[in-house]
Specification:
The chain has five helices and no strands.
């Protein structure tokens, strides 16, 4: 029984290892796929509550961001030309952002800059003598 448990544990470990390797090898394709699908969801956004619009709202609320790279991504959408920014872009509770960019989240830039800084530190740690 213990050998069977060890076999299953080893099998699970190998599956996770293969998934990690595949994820690393195809990381650029995965990133581009996510970006393209998110841009498409932004273009087709509406407030009627379809699954793509709900996903966009959930992502923007959870990550406290607005758009793919920043709030200016919304200016190319039909929703923006009709109603302005969606409520999920709000910095504060109970706001109506319409077209006022001061009220929308733009923290994604900070997250991106923090990522760039950590990557630069990681890449340069071996160059220090």
């Amino acid at each position: 029984m213990l050998k069977l448990y060890a076999m299953f544990l080893t099998l699970i470990f190998l599956v996770e290892l293969v998934a990690a390797i595949v994820g690393f090898v195809f990381r650029h394709e995965i990133k581009n796929s996510f970006k393209n699908n998110y841009e498409k969801a932004l273009k087709q956004y509406n407030s009627t509550g379809d699954y793509r619009s709900n996903a966009v709202d959930k992502i923007q609320n959870t990550l406290h961001c607005c758009g793919v790279t920043d709030y200016r991504d919304w200016t190319d959408t039909n929703y923006y030309s009709e109603k302005g920014f969606p409520k999920s872009c709000c910095k504060l509770e109970d706001c109506t952002p319409q077209r006022d960019a001061n009220k929308v989240n733009n923290e994604l830039i900070g997250i991106f800059l923090a990522y760039c800084l950590s990557r630069a530190i990681t890449n340069n740690q071996y160059e220090i003598v």
